[in-house]
Specification:
Strand content of chain A: 5-15%
Number of strands of chain B: 2
Order of helices and strands of chain A: HEHHEHHEH
Strand order of the largest sheet of chain A: 1-3-2
Radius of gyration of chain B: 25 Å
Number of strands of chain A: 3
Largest sheet of chain B: 2 strands, antiparallel
Number of helices of chain B: 9
Low-confidence stretches of chain B: none
Radius of gyration of chain A: 14 Å
Mean pLDDT of chain B: 84
Oligomer: heterodimer
Helix content of chain A: 40-55%
Distance between the termini of chain A: 28 Å
Mean pLDDT of chain A: 82
Shape of chain B: elongated
């Protein structure tokens, strides 16, 4: 299955709920959130809603570290039920797209 | 100072020229916004001239054109005069030229340094980002309201009959679009179909409601509200013309 550009998808659909975005992407829920986290850290997408903070601190395969509080995790269930967390292109992503 | 003298003297021809500069600059900006939006939200029914952020951006650029007009006199003595006014002696023609060309000045390479936007280009692009984000927000609200009104009716048609018909109509509408656009939509359709709930169809289950909502939004994004025009059980009253209804 061909891989979709998340930013292209977001620019053609407008803000979209996390669970809907995951359903429209070829990646699974965990991979999709990893991709979103990377895009967010690059300033290309904005995430708003209850899971926004969790996505920011989301880590794949967190290594156990007894002295540190466990990293917040997102289960597939959390992600596929996230109809109130919205993803949209960031202002800088729009600016780049409109300038080209 | 030619410009300020013209304003103070309230020369009627100059005022008409400034009005034309404002009008044509505003039309040019609205058209530019319309092209930007349609390039991305292809099937979203947007009347750009009714969107407040687009009107504000158009009016601001129009105002810049009107002010720039007062700094032209048709002799081509200054940069503004020769670039924007095209050395037109007739104030009305000059106003039209200034209106149509002011975006060139605002967006010229004069207002960027080593690829970084500054001045007019930065402001203009920020304005367009504001317009895009506002339209996107309105589009999201429209889709939410559409689903609030129609999801129950949609769920009255069991799967797979519902998605078969909806996807058939979606494909019929996008068949005139370029190949890469259709492939882009087809990839998403395949992904959504793969996410079809494994449990038996039950309209009361959240998985099925999410699946139907995702299908509806996919169809709205790429085929527009027209994709539902033949569905008599749906309430399409606010499909047009305003997104924010």
């Amino acid at each position: 299955m061909s891989s979709l550009s998340v930013v292209d998808l977001l620019q053609s659909s407008g803000p979209i709920a996390l669970n809907e975005l995951v359903m429209r992407m070829s990646e699974g829920p965990q991979e999709a959130v990893t991709a979103l986290r990377k895009l967010q850290s690059e300033g290309r997408v904005s995430i708003s809603g209850p899971l926004a903070g969790k996505i920011l601190s989301f880590k794949t395969n967190p290594e156990p570290n007894p002295g540190v509080e466990a990293v917040e995790t997102l289960t597939d269930q959390d992600i596929l039920g996230a109809s109130d967390t919205f993803i949209e292109p960031s202002a800088s992503s729009w600016r780049r797209s409109l300038a080209s | 100072m030619t410009g300020w003298q013209s304003i103070v003297d309230l020369d009627p021809q100059a005022l008409c020229g400034a009005g034309l500069a404002l009008l044509f600059a505003a039309i040019t900006v609205l058209y530019d916004c319309h092209v930007s939006v349609q390039d991305r939200l292809k099937r979203v029914p947007i009347e750009i001239y009714r969107e407040p952020p687009a009107l504000a951006l158009a009016f601001t650029c129009g105002l810049v054109a009107a002010i720039a007009f007062f700094f032209t006199d048709g002799k081509g003595d200054s940069l503004v005069d020769s670039v924007l006014g095209l050395k037109q002696a007739n104030p009305l023609l000059r106003g039209l030229c200034v209106g149509l060309t002011v975006l060139v000045l605002i967006r010229s390479k004069l207002s960027s340094i080593q690829g970084a936007e500054i001045g007019g280009e930065l402001l203009y692009n920020s304005g367009r980002v504001w317009v895009m984000r506002s339209l996107n927000s309105n589009w999201r609200n429209f889709k939410n309201k559409f689903n609030a009104r129609n999801l129950t009716s949609a769920l009255n048609t069991p799967s797979p009959n519902y998605e078969n018909r909806l996807l058939e109509e979606l494909r019929a509408i996008i068949k005139v679009q370029p190949e890469d656009y259709r492939s882009f939509v087809e990839s998403q359709i395949a992904n959504v179909l793969q996410s079809r709930p494994a449990v038996a169809f039950d309209p009361l289950r959240v998985e099925w409601q999410t699946y139907y909502r995702t299908l509806n939004n996919l169809a709205l994004d790429y085929a527009g509200p027209d994709v539902f025009s033949e569905w008599t059980q749906f309430n399409l009253s606010a499909s047009r013309p305003r997104l924010d209804q």
